[in-house]
Every structure is written in C-alpha cells, then in structure tokens.
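agent> Task received from the user: take the single chain below, predict its 3D structure, and emit structure tokens. No templates, no multimer pairing.
agent> Plan: (1) validate residues, (2) run structure prediction, (3) serialize to tokens, (4) report one or two observations.
agent> Step 1 OK, no nonstandard residues flagged.
tool_call: predict_structure(input=
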Amino acid sequence: MRTVPVVTHPEATHHVDRVVGGRYDSRLTAAGEGAAAAVAGALRSRISEGVDVEVFSSALRRTV
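)
tool_result: status=success, residues=64
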C-alpha cells in the first residue's frame, strides 16, 4: 500500500489581504512560514531513510 500525503500551502499574504488566491503568486506570512516548517518536520519524520520519495509542487513562490 502507498501513502500519499497531500499538503496545501499555509497562510499567505493574499489570505491576510483578502485577495482571491488561485494563481495569485503571494508569499507566506510569518505564521505561514512557521506552519510550513512544521509540515516539513512532520513529513521528514514519516519518511524512512533510503526510501525513494517523489515531491510534486506548484511553481508559485509560496510552495517553495
């Protein structure tokens, strides 16, 4: 069985500014950066060393 975690980006400036999202290329807020770091840590702890992993991401700045 394969596990596929799906993560959406955390809070970005377009949320705070109440601008419609979608392809709007905004940056993460400080809160969003903290949440992204927490997600990265949680994913890192679930991936076994030596296991091949594929990551797919949008090209928007907030997903980097």
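agent> Step 4: summary for the user.
DSSP finds two helices and no strands in the chain.
agent> Done.
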